[in-house]
UniProtKB/TrEMBL annotation:
Lineage: Bacteria, Bacillati, Bacillota, Clostridia, Lachnospirales
InterPro entries: RNA_pol_sigma_r3/r4-like, WH-like_DNA-bd_sf
Protein name: Sigma-70 family RNA polymerase sigma factor
Superkingdom classification of source: Bacteria
Gene3D superfamilies per the UniProt record, alphabetical: Winged helix-like DNA-binding domain superfamily/Winged helix DNA-binding domain
Length: 141
């Protein structure tokens, strides 16, 4: 949510008027009150700039997150295209297509039981393929 300067300014003015009323009731010198207001206004402006900046930065991060969601990996080709480590990329190029499909489905949150009918393998075969891949990657990486 964006920082609303007008709303925050109104809240600050209401707060200052209430504070100055209390100061007058307690007999604070009238020359001191404007100095307090000036100092508080400088503090308010500093905070306003900070909150405005963090609001802009938060919106930037939300936009980045939206773009990340839009680049969701949906195919094995997408999976390979997203890999930046060249050693890992070369290692995955040597892996059979079914194992890459298993990896993709695991990344998408599917359980081994759900993956089994999709790739036409038993759960034991899926576990074996993943274990084989882990051992292979440990050697390479």
């Amino acid at each position: 949510m964006a920082y609303n300067n007008g709303r925050e300014n109104r809240k600050w003015l209401i707060w200052k008027e209430a504070e100055e009323k209390i100061l007058r009731e307690h007999g604070v010198d009238e020359t001191t009150t404007p100095q307090i207001r000036t100092d508080d206004r400088a503090d308010f402006n500093s905070n306003r700039r900070f909150y405005h900046w963090t609001s802009d930065f938060g919106e930037y991060l939300e936009g980045m997150a939206d773009r990340e969601r839009n680049t969701e990996v949906k195919t094995v080709a997408d999976l390979l295209n997203e890999i930046e480590d060249e050693t890992l990329y070369r290692a995955l190029l040597t892996v059979d297509r079914r194992t890459l499909q298993i990896i993709l489905l695991k990344m998408q949150g599917y359980s081994t039981k759900e993956i089994s009918p999709l790739v036409g393998l038993t759960t034991g075969a899926i576990y074996a393929r993943l274990d084989h891949l882990r051992k292979k990657l440990r050697k390479i990486l």
